[in-house]
Amino acid sequence: MPPDVPTLTEQFRLGVNREKGGPVIERLGYGFWFGNGGRDYDRASLRIYSGGYSEAGSNSCVLALPTLGRSPNAERMMTAPVLTEIVRSMALAWEPEWAVAMSHAHRDLEDTAGKGDICLGWVTYLSRHQGTVPPLPAPVRIELVEDKGTLIILTSERFTAANPEHIVLARQVRELLAQAGLMQSASS
After folding, report:
1. 71 neighbors 38 (Cβ within 8 angstroms)
2. In a domain, 160, yes or no
3. Is residue 154 domain-resident?
4. What share of the chain is helix, strand, coil (3-state, %, to 5)?
5. Cβ-Cβ contacts under 8 Å for 98 (sequence gap 6 or more)
6. Domains identified in the chain, total number
């Protein structure tokens, strides 16, 4: 980590080559990760990529949640209203191409190989630049985020990877979004 705030600010502004002494690569933007230090089922993290405009990757925010029922801290934050506001806040603050809140268990269950690089979780945001979100089956809710994009809330009840109906719904919605051309990042 840089020794002071001005240095860190300048690195965020310009982007930094990971090669020691390498030149700044502005079009790649920057990424950072925060973890809560939790172990196993209590683990949560936030990964943000922002400021990029190359074909190498997409601007995104991923909130990986602790495991409900196995984490003492998951209960209070894992509600549709809380996660909807968290993802909405990430979308407004960072203006990513996409953002998601999903459990580690759901993320591990969904093999994204060959499915594009956009994750679909309990609450997902897609930038309007991705395209128009089509009508989706109940109980899915769609909410606009100002003029920036759309939130997709799969269900108002707690989404768990252990519930087969939730997984079927997520896969059905993913397929509908893929058919509409929304599951590939703008950089794909």
Report:
1. yes
2. yes
3. yes
4. 30, 20, 45
5. 58, 60, 61, 118, 119, 124, 125, 126, 127, 130, 185
6. 1
Q: Name residue 61's amino acid.
A: C
Question: 31 Cβ partners below 8 Å, 6+ apart?
Answer: 47, 48, 49, 50
Residue 186 lies in a domain: no
In a domain, 21, yes or no: no
What token pair was written down for 57? Answer: 């990757």
DSSP class of 21: T
Q: What integer is the mean pLDDT of 91-116? A: 77
Alpha helices (H) in 3-155, listed in sequence order: 5-14, 74-77, 80-94, 104-109
The pTM (predicted TM-score) of the whole model is 0.81
Q: What is the pLDDT of residues 148-166, one digit of tens each?
A: 999 999 999 989 888 999 9
Amino acid at 22: G
Contacts (Cβ under 8 Å, ≥6 apart) of 179: 134
Q: With 70 as the cut, is the pLDDT of residue 120 above it?
A: yes
Query: Nearest Cα to 176, choosing from 103, 106, 126?
Result: 126
Q: Which domain holds residue 129?
A: 30-179
Region 127-143: mean pLDDT is: 96
